[in-house]
Design brief:
The chain has about 1000 residues and is of the alpha/beta class. Helix content is about 60%, strand content about 10%. It has 46 helices and 16 strands. The longest helix is centred in the last third of the chain and has 24 residues, at about 910-930. The model is unreliable at about 90-105, about 245-250, about 830-835 and about 955-960 (pLDDT under 50).
């Protein structure tokens, strides 16, 4: 094809040159060139390609088409140039499975793994030398190509790749999905907008066309009429050259093109009309057959069209390419409705003659032509080809394209309608349209019932819960429950994968209903049947249902074992979603056990699989759990950032679970930090409504408002909870949480009867940790609440034992906020004994001295900060006082003004990123050593050693983050020294009092005065 000479555009070309230089240097970049038709987007891309090739850079092109090409069409062109062995560069799709379980066994992560493989290929190719990727006419891209574009753009910073896309910035040419993708691309993607040329540049372009320098008046007139649009300038200039006049210049480029088309022969116009309806890049033999002209005549007419600059040049690879997309548009829109429909029919009939039975490549094109054709058989033939196109698109992971094709297919009469509707629902589900999928499955169930199709009814019911794997199954879904019951009754009474899947899902559906007692038998039967029929995916789902049926605290070990078995089954079946579900179940069990090193390992393992899948449905769990772990270490800021990240990913996934868990993480962040924002009450109300005011939700409300000091509000929720009784808290994954809230509120509301009952029920589980939801919050170890309940009930010995166990658990877990609270609770009761005598004492400040009296001896001591500290403690016997409060009492800044530490040496997110990178480097080092790439090994080892040193510098031996300055820690040391100095001064004048204070005063972050006998101090 002839390349246009570029005029002007120095600034945008310089911008692209800078991006190319960055990519060559290893800092991948991307840009979108925007402009109306004819502005020279392709010309600019060609100029960039020429400069890149001159620098030894590989260039690969991909073209999007308005003619309904298969999914990933532009990427297939690119990969054919860069990596012909890649699966996307080939012709064969993955194949459509049919094993009796129908369409609902698909792996939603398969497309994400394809995306990863593309990025891996780009990394490998660019490792041998920098690469420029050019995607033309992005406005016509299929949705699957757009999704892959987004993933590649995100990966570019680590690649030696420059990606440039051209986009026709014209609303009528651009679909909503394309506009949304472009709008949501990161700001790092350069937007290079091409506007009209200036008058001097227009004059230069006119000179190139006319061969003479135009008069200023002519250049000004052309600029005014064309707006500086380069394509329009060329066309007007050619019109002027043909007319040798300056009048009668058309107002629009389409009118110019229409006039130029009118000047070619009638035979040439007819050939161009066929080619325009066939689509840019039409096959010459197809156009020839439809036109009914001999080859020699057609080739002469194509030469005429090329000479008239309506075509880019002679056919390339037997395909016809227009000089500009506008030429094709003008030709097609100039046709009458009947003529256009007749050409579509003729093209469809000719394609059918040449397409083989397994030629799915042509299915989309045939569906397009038949859909635009007339005739009594056109609709049915369009539907038949659309069904083939839909299945082909689904096999190629073009789910959005498949949805559109399935809708055309459903217009036909001669189809297995329920099966096609099931396939449509699956495509909608994988395309992210969960609500649309739900509506389709519900309609499919109605139709399957009327047609007596029990298996299709069962698959529709399973589809309502996201297919066989059921990663997020909606609770309290009466529609799904009813359909599952109906399906189970309709399916044959014999072993089968579908029957096992329905039983497992029905076990989940009965959660929280009056059929709760049936869940365990259903789940066990499902697991046994799935194992007998040997279907890994169904067995994994059944095991998940079994784990959910035994989610209470009495079955933690059994649940962990079942989840581990589920993981092994899913790994054998290469089922990534089920692997993630198994890891989620394992992780919650590990949290309940308090096995925190294994929890962190499980989070990392989950993250590795989720990162490969790159689906929001799975990805949001990772920041949620890392936020909960950051909160445990007292890193509130990092926990809040992880909550924001979880919310953003969960919103993209459309996950109700994500929204609820974000609320949970934020609530526990507020509670643990001791800051309860007033505007958070709205979030609480929304969450409770979402939870349908369950007993656990009522307990949470009572506990939260009690902590917030709103005792009346807390009391109302507590009374509603207790009107149902503690038995209303179901024995499932929320039982420990519900009991914790009830016990916490009982203490605050002075309800000893409830405290007794909660303590009795929790006693067998004192070693378990209480987890909110699926890991969105960690409430503490059960022994802690039991210790508080014991102290509230006056059982000091039990309280001391339980709180000591809690302190030990928190120390081992580095759970700093919980440790502080447990130590405070323990300090409050550690010195409490029954006393029958009381001793009076005096500890009074008198000017610059203190007057002391104890057991008939008196003395005076000079003023000091330590004496002020002792005075505060003596005035609150048995009450722990924070060191920052003592500092404030002695004239220092108030506790609220002390601020937090200046942060850890590495914050939580940086730490996690460092640790993940170290793990990746270990894998990369092993791969490089295996491949014998010694230079790469050295580079990787150097990076790993650096990160290890950074981590070692940032964390102590116990794994606690070193901070750059903790006010509480500084105050602890200062107060301990001040108190010791004051007691030493007292010893010199009053040894008896000094001995009493040494035994009764304890210092630490919380200081407390616990006399062995009741003491009344006068100040």
């Amino acid at each position: 094809m002839e390349r246009r000479v570029m005029v002007g555009r120095a600034r945008p070309l310089a911008e692209l040159d800078a991006l190319l230089a960055a990519a060559i240097d290893g800092r991948g970049r991307s840009a979108i060139v925007l402009g109306e038709p004819g502005m020279g987007k392709t010309t600019l891309a060609e100029a960039l390609a020429d400069r890149a090739l001159a620098s030894g850079v590989t260039v690969a092109w991909g073209w999007c088409s308005a003619a309904g090409m298969p999914p990933f069409w532009p990427w297939r062109s690119i990969l054919r140039d860069l990596a012909p062995e890649h699966r996307l560069a080939g012709e064969a799709p993955a194949g459509h499975g049919a094993d009796g379980l129908g369409v609902l066994r698909g792996d939603a992560g398969v497309r994400a793994r394809l995306f990863v493989s593309v990025i891996d290929t780009l990394q490998k190719v660019s490792g041998d030398g920098p690469v420029v990727l050019i995607l033309e006419d992005l406005q016509w891209a299929d949705s699957a190509s757009l999704l892959l574009l987004r993933q590649v753009v995100d990966a570019l910073p680590g690649l030696r790749v420059l990606l440039v896309a051209t986009w026709r910035d014209e609303p009528s040419s651009t679909g909503d999905d394309v506009r949304a993708v472009v709008r949501d691309l990161p700001t790092a993607v350069e937007r290079i907008r091409l506007d009209g040329l200036g008058i001097d540049e227009v004059a230069e372009l006119v000179t190139r066309v006319l061969g003479d320098t135009p008069a200023d008046e002519l250049a000004t007139m052309v600029h005014r009429r064309t707006g500086g649009n380069p394509f329009f300038v060329r066309e007007v200039s050619r019109l002027l050259a043909a007319r040798s006049a300056t009048t009668g210049v058309p107002d629009g480029v389409r009118e110019v093109l229409a006039r130029r088309i009118a000047r070619v022969s009638q035979g040439c116009q007819q050939i161009l009309e066929v080619a325009a309806v066939a689509g840019d890049g039409a096959d010459v033999s197809l156009v020839m057959a439809v036109a009914g002209e001999p080859a020699d005549a057609v080739l002469l007419q194509l030469e005429e069209a090329a000479a008239a600059r309506l075509l880019a040049g002679p056919p390339v690879d037997n395909r016809i390419w227009f000089a500009h997309a506008l030429v094709q548009e003008v030709l097609e829109t100039s046709l009458g409705t009947a003529r256009r429909a007749a050409l579509h029919r003729a093209l469809a009939e000719q394609l059918e003659e040449t397409a083989g039975d397994d030629d799915d490549e042509a299915a989309g094109e045939l569906a397009r032509h038949w859909s635009a054709a007339f005739g009594p058989d056109a609709a049915e033939r369009a539907a038949a080809w659309a069904l083939r196109a839909a299945r082909s698109a689904g096999d190629r992971m073009g789910y959005e394209q498949a949805v559109d094709a399935y809708r055309i297919a459903l217009r036909g009469k001669d189809i297995e309608r329920t099966k096609v509707m099931l396939e449509l629902g699956e495509a909608q589900m994988y395309a992210g349209d969960l609500e649309g999928a739900r509506q389709t499955f519900a309609q499919t169930a109605d139709l399957a019932r009327r047609n007596g199709r029990a298996s299709h009814l069962a698959m529709a019911a399973l589809g309502l819960g996201a297919g066989l794997s059921g990663f997020e199954v909606p609770q309290y879904d009466e529609l799904q429950t009813g359909l599952l019951e109906e399906a189970l009754a309709s399916l044959p009474q014999r072993d089968g994968g579908l029957r096992a899947a329905v039983m497992g899902r029905l076990s989940l559906a009965y959660a929280g209903t009056d059929r709760e007692s049936e869940r365990l038998d259903l789940a066990r039967s499902a697991v046994a049947m799935a194992e007998r029929v040997g279907h890994p995916c169904v067995e994994s789902g059944a095991l998940a249902a079994y784990c959910d049926a035994i989610a209470g605290p009495a079955h933690v070990d059994e649940r962990f074992a079942a989840a581990s078995r589920m993981l092994a089954v899913a790994e054998r079946g290469h089922d990534s979603p089920c692997q993630l579900l198994a890891r989620r179940l394992r992780l919650v069990a590990l949290m309940e056990r308090g096995d925190w090193p294994e929890v962190d390992a499980e989070i990392d393992a989950f993250a590795r699989t989720a990162n490969r899948l790159m689906l929001p449905l799975y990805s949001w769990y990772v920041p949620l759990w890392r936020g909960a772990r950051a909160l445990m270490s007292g890193d509130f800021e990092t926990a809040a950032r992880y909550a924001d990240e979880t919310e953003a990913i969960g919103r993209r996934a459309g996950s109700a679970n994500a929204a609820l868990m974000v609320f949970t993480l934020r609530m526990w962040t507020h509670r643990t930090a001791g800051v309860l924002p007033t505007d958070f009450v709205d979030d609480i109300d929304a969450a409770v409504k979402t939870a349908t005011e369950s007993s656990v939700a009522l307990g949470m409300l009572a506990s939260y408002f009690a902590v917030a000091g709103e005792i009346d509000t807390a009391g109302r929720s507590f009374d509603r909870l207790m009107s149902r009784g503690l038995n209303a808290i179901p024995d499932d994954c929320e039982w420990l949480e519900g009991m914790w809230h009830a016990g916490d509120a009982a203490i605050a509301l002075d309800r000893a009867d409830v405290a007794d009952e909660v303590a009795r029920r929790l006693a067998p589980h004192e070693g378990l940790w209480v987890i909110d939801g699926i890991g969105g919050g960690v409430m503490g170890v059960t022994a802690h609440l039991l210790g508080r309940l014991a102290a509230f009930r006056g059982r000091i010995g039990d309280a001391r034992r339980l709180l000591s166990r809690a302190v030990s658990a928190y120390q081992g877990a580095n759970a700093v906020p919980w440790l502080t609270r447990a130590e405070q609770d323990l300090a409050a009761i550690s010195g409490v004994v029954r006393r029958t005598t009381s001793v009076d004492g005096v500890f009074r400040k008198d000017g610059r001295t203190w007057h002391l009296s104890w057991r008939d001896d008196e003395a005076t001591v000079p003023d000091s900060k330590g004496m002020h500290d002792l005075s505060v403690l003596l005035g609150q016997p048995g009450t722990p006082v924070h060191v920052l409060d003592l500092v404030a009492a002695a004239g220092g800044p108030p506790r609220t003004a002390a601020g937090g530490d200046t942060g850890p040496v590495l914050d939580g997110m940086a730490r996690d990123a460092y640790r993940r990178r170290v793990a990746e480097l270990d894998t990369d080092i092993a791969d490089a050593e295996r491949d014998g790439i010694s230079q790469r090994v050295g580079t990787l080892v150097e990076e790993r050693d650096f990160l290890v040193r950074e981590l070692a510098a940032a964390y102590g031996l116990g794994g606690r983050a070193r901070t750059t300055g903790d006010p509480a820690e500084r105050a602890r040391k200062a107060v301990a020294m001040r108190v010791a100095t004051a007691i030493k001064a007292i010893r010199e004048v009053h040894p008896g009092l000094a001995r009493h204070l040494e035994l009764a005063v304890s210092t630490g972050r919380f200081c407390v005065y616990r006399p062995e006998e009741t003491a009344t101090w006068h100040s």
